[in-house]
Amino acid sequence: MEFSMKxxxxxxxxxxxxxxxxxxxxxxxxxxxxxxxxxxxxxxxxIGVTGAxxxxxxxxxxxxxxxxxxxxxxxxxxxxxxxxxxTGGAILGDRIRMNDLTLDQGVYIRSMGTRGSLGGLSRKTxxxxxxxxxxxxxxxFIETVGVGQSEVDIVKNADTTLIVLVPGLGDDIxxxxxxxxxxxxxxxxxxxxxxxxxxxxxxxEMMLDLxxxxxxxxxxxxxxxxxxxxxxxxxxxxxEHRKYLExxxxxxxxxxxxxxxxxxxxxxxRISRHVMEEITxxxxxxxxxxxxxERQTDPYTVVDSIVGDIFK
Amino acid sequence: MEFSMKxxxxxxxxxxxxxxxxxxxxxxxxxxxxxxxxxxxxxxxxIGVTGAxxxxxxxxxxxxxxxxxxxxxxxxxxxxxxxxxxTGGAILGDRIRMNDLTLDQGVYIRSMGTRGSLGGLSRKTxxxxxxxxxxxxxxxFIETVGVGQSEVDIVKNADTTLIVLVPGLGDDIxxxxxxxxxxxxxxxxxxxxxxxxxxxxxxxEMMLDLxxxxxxxxxxxxxxxxxxxxxxxxxxxxxEHRKYLExxxxxxxxxxxxxxxxxxxxxxxRISRHVMEEITxxxxxxxxxxxxxERQTDPYTVVDSIVGDIFK
Lengths: 312, 312
Hints:
The structure is a homodimer. Chain A is of the alpha/beta class. Chain A is built from twelve helices and seven strands. A seven-stranded parallel beta sheet of chain A has the order 3-2-4-1-5-6-7, with helices on both faces. Chain A is globular. At the A-B interface, helix 3, helix 6, helix 7, helix 10 and helix 11 of A face helix 3, helix 6, helix 7, helix 10 and helix 11 of B.
């Protein structure tokens, strides 16, 4: 497939899709694309959506997309696949969202997996968001299914994070909740017609009370996503948070922090790759592995020596 | 608190606990400890336990521990906490397992969080397992709550992986299942008295049929962990897999691979830290961040230049 930046700037959806693929797979030309588009980023409202598995995030996102469309905004969705360490994810990718949204030219939906992985999924997501932003989408959702550290890292690419919770999912979920509660700017209790919605609401309030006092108190909405109920409250919360970010100067602060951590990650990746290539090529690494495996030495001593060699 | 290797080798539980804390927090002396114990590792049977949130992994693990104890084995448990990116996890840590197991001198239970984090949780877990192994525990469980990539990475520290599934947890779970299915050596359908257990069994069989044909066909047990039912079947599956690993030579292969990836990770960590310290101290990094944030340049160009400087 051919790709031209001219098509990209002219608004071709195919060019956007192609650009994301090039970046995702780190194919030739990906750095050139990123360098060219970087100056045109920073315009979109970027919203992360995460929460416990089974909370109904996809349905909720679909409803949010439709709401923003009615407000005249163009919308991008970056849906993170549950990662398969062997086939490289994309389990959900080809299955979701085969609905009316895909026919709307003002909506662009993209699944991100770890196919062709070298860099991390977080970096790829950040790049895909930048591409959608530069291409001209007004609102971009980053949607993750999981609840682990890597998913939290991914959501950090957003300006505002929406946490979707659901009543009654057991003990593990309670614990996970405590972890994700700290990154939430807006909450919604989805499937709020289920037993336990009130208790969950009280629990969230209590956790927020326990946390550090901040200028922004996250609002807690209630939704029944598959009936389209409560969506407006969520959107109001998201927009209020956006306003707060802008007026308080926190938007700049968060984005500056993000530049910093992105650059640090890129430097890590590049250096590690360079070093591993060098020691793998020389055959030194294979020798060391064998000696450590045979317990003739230990990995700590070996790593000291390898790293010492590099920075001598 | 004082720590001596002599106490550690004499079987002091307090010394084991202290050693893990030193390693977890990368306090002074941690590399010396790891260098000394490394030669005494490789004896324990290391079993990973993972699965969807709410599947009842903790209760199942407790039952497995008791079963191995009855077989006369000493047992260690490394329980990974759901990670909180800000407070550093340990939500579950102090809550779980305040039961009869903690009174048994043949059992050692430890929660791992990301407190004092610099290296990753996967590296810390690997080190804690090595300490338990060298200290003399026969069977070591690594138990994770999450389902994301980081949890999968952690479970890769085990020789045998047990996947705990549960009927009827909705769509997200189905997708996650597909991801973790590929790392399972033994499966159990927990809460198997619930509706949907048979269907789940068929689904797992189908996924296994779809996967690459291998010499080992993972057995699927059925348990009701909180009634102690079906535990023996799981243990039989785990032990058969162990036997298979040893006889096929796969145990050596997996452990060699693990040495390789552990060393690669250590090298990455060390080099990245060294480089970041250097460029942070010089103030260069802060300048670059500001210029990128102001979009006077882009991160790709800047990283090219920083990395180029290091390896010129």
